[in-house]
Specification:
204 residues, alpha+beta, 2,3-Dihydroxybiphenyl 1,2-Dioxygenase, domain 1, eight-stranded mixed beta sheet, four-stranded mixed beta sheet, 3 helices, 12 strands
Length: 204
């Protein structure tokens, strides 16, 4: 688990939701220039964090729909997750051989409020990925991981998935080297168990 993606139509609303649940203050993230989004972050361990991502009113509308379904999102929720991997082309090839297309790896980044840049290579976040229960994958390269500057007051414990076709999702996960429980559900869902200052919670 590299990070969880909690999407919100409005950043302040999403941040309030997480801060109320966790009992901690989220830290500044930055703007995804050209994508029309921005985020804030909370640490969940030495190598895991969560971002609250939302539409950025200070940017013009992007050329394509905003990632994570933000243009049509009605309420804040956990929409997907991201796993770290060192060889993204090989991972994409294994996924395609198993029937799941992660999309071609591409460079990405965001600008911190202080003007510094955070860069990465990532598989396509717009790829369908079984409604978001299959993660997208990231390689931070030489960029310092965001967790290096985030206090980890809360702790990621585990995650489980729900999907109308759990057997197929399990096949795809195994092909990608992931071992995570998948249960039958009416709709795709990611459910994370997190230890917070206010107790252990399940977030979906």
């Amino acid at each position: 688990m590299d990070h969880l993606v909690f999407a919100a139509p409005d950043l302040d609303e999403g941040v309030r939701t997480i801060e109320d649940l966790f009992g901690v203050e989220m830290k500044a993230g930055g703007q995804h220039h050209g994508f029309g989004t921005r985020n804030r972050l909370v640490g969940l361990g030495p190598s895991t964090y969560m971002e609250v991502v939302s539409i950025d009113p200070d940017q013009p509308d992007p050329e394509r729909p905003r990632w994570f379904g933000l243009d049509d999102l009605a309420a804040p929720r956990l929409v997907t997750w991201c796993a770290a991997a060192p060889d993204l082309p090989a991972l994409v090839a294994r996924g395609r051989a198993a029937g799941i297309d992660l999309g071609d790896p591409a460079p990405g980044g965001r600008t911190r409020p202080d003007g510094s840049r955070v860069s990465w290579t990532v598989t396509d976040p717009w790829a369908e990925r079984a409604g978001g229960v299959i993660p997208f994958f990231i390689d931070w390269g030489k960029t310092r991981h965001p967790c290096r500057t985030l206090p980890a007051i809360s702790t990621f414990l585990s995650a489980r998935l729900e999907h109308p076709d759990p057997a197929t999702v399990e096949v795809w996960l195994r092909a990608l080297g992931l071992d995570i429980p998948v249960e039958l559900g009416d709709a795709p869902a990611v459910i994370a168990t997190i230890r917070t200052l206010r107790g252990v919670i399940e977030l979906r």
